[in-house]
Write a structure and sequence with these properties.
heterodimer; A: mainly alpha; B: 259 residues; 8 helices; globular
Chain lengths: 60, 259
């Protein structure tokens, strides 16, 4: 059951890492006052995670 | 009413309920409707309990709004990216489409192997039919429940406007009624619906919502406020089409696993 929940919520920890990392970069940018660039970092990070997830699934 | 939330949940729930319906139909037609419907009823009961428990916990307890935005954003983005990646590869032909008729036949054959073919059903077949329906409704519905709860959690972020929770619940329930009524009337899996297109659309919407709310939680400035969502959908759609082009040349489609 726990494994099922993990699969449902997280799925792949590397994808979680990708989203959290891009959120971290975005947060750092907003702290520097670069709030627009923070949004851009998030979009790029999520895009990169999508590329990774697609590649990983294609190779599975 | 948050129409975009209701639509996203409706489409996402439709995909999951179609898959659950296939399992309930396999159990009901092959073994009997009593264990199939009993299994479904228990599945829905457990699901209702999970939604109520998580919904109350997330909307009532003193969780910082920012933490809530971050958690919901990360969850929706992850969920959306997973659906989008799978739908992209299926649209490119790199992995096989989910075939409801094949899934129905597979489950029905395994039930028949347990002694469900004759007039007298074996106790094991009855038990298996119950379990198949219960697990089908619970596991497929759990994804719907998580999406509903995630949207519901944003209720506190929308003070003064109608709650997104009820829009999400309405979307999920209307999909449930529509899919199950259609399935019980036709007594066949809903194989003709463009399941992958639905999944593609929901993946795009969830990814965009997730990134948007994550940004809100972090404090980024989105140009155009809520209109940014449209831009995000366009960006992720363009990226997924590029990826479909990249992986569309796979000469040997593999059997898809899971939903």
């Amino acid at each position: 059951m726990l494994e099922t929940l993990y699969d449902l919520v997280i799925g792949d920890y590397r994808a979680l890492l990708g989203v959290v990392l891009s959120a971290g970069v975005a947060y750092a940018l907003t702290l520097l006052g670069l709030r627009l660039e923070g949004g851009l970092a998030l979009v790029v990070g999520a895009g990169a995670t999508l590329v990774f997830a697609t590649h990983a699934r294609a190779g599975a | 009413m948050h129409w975009i939330v209701a639509l996203t949940t409706f489409l996402g729930a439709s995909v999951e309920w179609i898959e659950a319906l296939t399992l309930v139909l396999a159990a009901g037609i092959t073994v009997g409707w009593r264990p199939a419907l009993r299994g479904s009823a228990y599945g829905f009961l457990v699901l209702g309990g999970i939604v109520a428990l998580l919904g109350v916990a997330l909307t009532r307890f003193a969780i910082l709004t920012t933490v809530l935005q971050l958690a919901v954003g990360v969850f929706l983005a992850l969920f959306g990216i997973r659906w989008l990646a799978k739908a992209t590869l299926r649209s490119a032909g790199a992995i096989a489409l989910h075939d409801e008729e094949a899934a129905f036949e597979r489950e029905a054959a395994s039930l028949r192997a347990l002694g469900a073919g004759g007039q007298v059903r074996s106790p094991r077949a009855l038990q298996e039919a119950f379990t198949l329906s219960f697990q089908g409704v619970l596991l497929e519905g759990l994804e719907v429940a998580l999406i509903v709860v995630a949207f519901g959690a944003t209720t506190r972020l929308h003070s003064g406007s109608p709650s997104p929770l009820w829009s999400a619940v309405l979307g999920a329930l209307s999909a449930l009624v529509l899919v199950f009524v259609a399935g019980l009337l036709t007594h066949k899996p809903l194989a003709r619906l463009p399941e992958n297109t639905l999944k593609y659309a929901v993946g795009l919407m969830l990814t965009s919502f997730g990134v948007f709310w994550l940004g809100e939680g972090i404090g980024v400035r989105w140009p155009g406020q809520d209109l940014t969502l449209v831009g995000l959908v366009v960006v992720f759609f363009a990226l997924s089409r590029a990826l479909a082009g990249r992986y569309g040349t796979n000469p040997e489609p593999q059997e898809a696993s899971g939903a």
